[in-house]
Amino acid sequence: EPEVTQTPSHQVTQMGQEVILRCVPISNHLYFYWYRQILGQKVEFLVSFYNNEISEKSEIFDDQFSVERPDGSNFTLKIRSTKLEDSAMYFCASSGLEREQYFGPGTRLTVT
Amino acid sequence: RKEVEQDPGPFNVPEGATVAFNCTYSNSASQSFFWYRQDCRKEPKLLMSVYSSGNEDGRFTAQLNRASQYISLLIRDSKLSDSATYLCVVNNPLHTGTASKLTFGTGTRLQVTL
User: Fold this and answer.
1) Are the CB atoms for A82 and A106 separated by under 8 Å?
2) pLDDT tens for residues A78-112?
3) How many C-beta atoms surround the C-beta of residue A34 within 10 A?
4) How do residues A40-58 score in pLDDT, each as one tens digit?
5) Nearest Cβ partner of B99 from A49, A89, A108?
6) Do B98 and A104 touch (CB under 8 A)?
7) 3-state SS, residue A85
8) How far is CA A69 from CA A56, A73, B46, in A?
């Protein structure tokens, strides 16, 4: 069964450093997403991406965040200058023409 | 009012019991509805989509009431492996044919015991 994959599974970084989280969506999917979940809180939408551009972004997704689809398979989330409050699980998701979104296993980001 | 509201639980039930979760949503323009399950520190996994006519998948039955903006999930004959957090999720597409965001509830924790 096809699945979304994410790397790394865990990233530790110092405040102010740049991080890039990587995702490989399901191969025939067209829509890509990033969500985050701070420990003990609900899953929150960050950004959606379709046809090589951002479709929608949340208030969380400020100028420090960017997304890219550098080739036909990868989808990345970059945080330019990490803050302590960026510590969270970051989930990538993808969907096809149907509205059901499938999530990757997540990257746990710890900012120290 | 929260966009998606759920009773956080926990619901502690014995194996074999029937348990029901409820959820309300505030945006009447929401178009698609789902139940996901999430195990501790894992990703949300799609359990089932929820249709206006109601739908069933084995021991799981989901119902949607658009007029009341209410979604439910019924689990019959609970198994130990059903222990997880159940997330009520709604989808609000900006435009038809575009990517759209999911809005999650905080989840209802279920613990099934022997």
Assistant:
1) no
2) 999 999 999 999 999 999 887 799 999 999 999 99
3) 26
4) 999 999 999 998 999 999 9
5) A49
6) no
7) helix
8) 16, 8, 25
